[in-house]
Amino acid sequence: MRVFVAGATGVISRRLLPLLTSQGHEVIGLARSYGAAVEVEMLGAVVAEADALDSEALSRVVKDAAPDAVVHLLTAIPAKINPRRMSRDFAQTNRLRTEGTRNLLYAAQQAGAKRIITQGLACIYEPNTWVPATEVTPLWRDPPRQFGPVLASLRSLEERTRQADGLVLRLGQLYGHGTIYGRQGSFVRQVQAGKMPIVGSDGGTFSFTHVGDAASAIAAALHSHVHGALNIVDDEPAPVREWLPILAELLEAPPPKHVPVALARLAAGAWGVAFMTQLRGADNTLARRILDWVPRYSSWRQGFAAELTHPAHP
């Protein structure tokens, strides 16, 4: 297949582009700058130069690429996020998920692409500590104010994908090289400094996805005709009180402290507290069955250990 990848230099694409070329696909990667173009070439893909927010330029390069499939991985997430300024830190990503999605899916339609795959999130379901969310679980009805624009942009992305008969892959908390949970990631550095506590008595539940498993799921989805949404997460949703101490131990960091919700809210705001106490795990049964996809790391336990205790890999 000819596969057009938007967001071709992100943490997932660094795994996805070589994987697709190794499978015999012709890959065209969208690049907005010279540096990004060089990276796309180094990853083995053909470069298409345009800004995703420039509808005419994007339509032109997608038409020239004549892809069979279009993969939307566009984000502009800062390396470190201030939870009290979530709306500000995600403003550009929100535009890419709204305007960028509109432009890209219009360009894909005009170019005759038959397969559309977009990147969603598996942590935006209505909170429930105990029951992992399936794809039919309602999305978060009343999120903290700072997260509202992020959720609205994701709703828009999913609706446009649905209208285009595409597939949204709802990813868990991404970990691996280049992520906040990677060796040099902002979350890991906070854990090493003893600045990432367990908030409240219970805490939320996280579902994780290794970047390599996200890439393999996208590759599998290219050969599927399923539409709608699928959870792409590992097999073991885990409460913060369970995975955070294990992460600290792997890093040889101080054990995480326990802090009350009120104190955490003063430091991290409503979204920072919600992130640590209200997120809901997700169920991957449907993706495993429909895509015939199996995550390399069935649990964050093996994945964290491989990433953080073994030599780094590119």
Descriptive notes:
It is a single chain. The chain is built from 12 helices and 13 strands. The protein has 314 residues and is α/β, with parallel strands linked by helices. The protein has a 7-stranded parallel β-sheet, with helices on both faces. A two-stranded parallel sheet has the order 7-10. Strand 1, helix 1 and strand 2 form a beta-alpha-beta unit. It is globular. The mean pLDDT is 95.
Comma- or semicolon-separated keywords:
314 residues, alpha/beta, seven-stranded parallel sheet, two-stranded parallel ribbon, 12 helices, 13 strands
Write a brief caption for the model:
With 314 residues, this protein is an alpha/beta fold.
**SSE class:** alpha/beta
Name the shape in a single word. globular
Q: Main β-sheet, in a few words? A: 7 strands, parallel
The radius of gyration computed from the alpha-carbon positions, rounded to a whole number of angstroms, is 19 Å
Number of strands: 13
Uncertain residue segments: none
What is the assembly state of the chains in this entry?
Answer: single chain
Average pLDDT over all residues: 95
The strand line-up of the biggest sheet is 3-2-1-4-5-6-11
Helical percent range?
40-55%
Strand content: 15-25%
Q: Give the topology string: H per helix, E per strand.
A: EHEHEHEHHEHEEHEEEHEEHEHHH
